[in-house]
Amino acid sequence: MKALVTGATGFVGGALARRLHGMGWDVAALGRNTLKLEQLESEGIRPLQLDIKKMAGLVAAFNGREVIFHCAALPSPWGNFEKFYQANVIGTRNVVRACLENKVKRLVYISTPSIYFDYNSRVGVKESDALPEPISNYAATKLLAEEEIDKGFANGLAVVSIRPRALFGEGDTVIFPRLIPRLKSGRLPILGDGENVVDLTYIQNVVDALLLCAESPANTLGKKYNISNGEPVKIWRLIERICDELNLPHPKRKISYKTADTAAGMLEFFYSLIPYGPEPPLTRISVSMLANSTTLDISAARNELGYQPRVSVEEGVERFLKWWKETMSLRGGAERRRSNPQ
Fold it and tell me: Catalytic annotation on 202?
């Protein structure tokens, strides 16, 4: 099979491109990060340095490719709407157009369950549940991107979408790598009552879901599927487990959700006044994720795609921690060599 992966220099795209290559697929990796593209090329994967926000080059890049995996996106709880719009909406529109012009057999798209959530707990959310107003520019533009996918389907494009929840694993740059520095500093309090449950999704389980979508039956076309590990965990117990493994202090101090949400809202207001300001140290979205319960119903993916999470949260965390320790050890050695040249 001949496939192309957009966003191949990202967390999901990179894992997918490597899995496909290992399965013997002819894989082209599309991205903008030169160093990561060079790494993929060294592993035998064809690199394509293109920006999906620009149509030029996409039609030629998709030529001859049977399956397109659209993993590229701008994911962040904070940022300028126009940047999100260009990356997530215009980028997806261009991908759909290039697929239609090349008559590709299948487009597999990664959306997000962020479109489901407001600032309250939501448990067992189904794909058909009513959607609230988007709580971030990311969620708003991914919802608009789904509309571009729907237009492509209406025009004859065979497409299946997934909404994977809270991805983690080796190569993670978002969830645990954001938490660990706060844990090291000892400045992360327990937000809420500490008993909330959340869904997580191990990276290789997401890759499994993407592969299932690439060859799923006709009745799945045009649909969106929730994806998670299907085993909600108490997030603060998991954080304590990570602390134990990395010899970090457990969070002790508790702050109510209302207090933390108010503080985050004030920070967001002040940071919004700074032109091109950085992300606040605390956002309302991050507070909600750590204080509220958020889980998905994945029965549709199980029944229609045949999705079955193969790697448990426990095993996935073990793999992540092993990778993290090795990565930090190598990074520390490199820093010591730079500071003590021979």
Answer: no
Count other C-beta atoms under 10 Å from residue 184's C-beta.
14
Does 252 map to a domain? no
**Reduced to 3 states, what is the DSSP secondary structure of residue 27?**
strand
Q: Is the pTM of this model over 0.85?
A: yes
C-alpha to C-alpha distance for 274 and 255, rounded to whole angstroms: 27
What is residue 277's predicted lDDT score, i.e. its pLDDT?
A: 73
Given 138, 202, 257, 307, the catalytic residue:
138
Assess if residue 25 is contained within a domain: yes
User: What confidence tens digit (pLDDT) does each residue in 133-177 have?
Assistant: 999 999 999 999 999 999 999 999 999 999 999 999 999 988 898
**249 domain residue, yes or no:** no
For 85, the domain range is 2-165+202-228+295-310
Look at residue 275 and tell me if it is in a domain. no
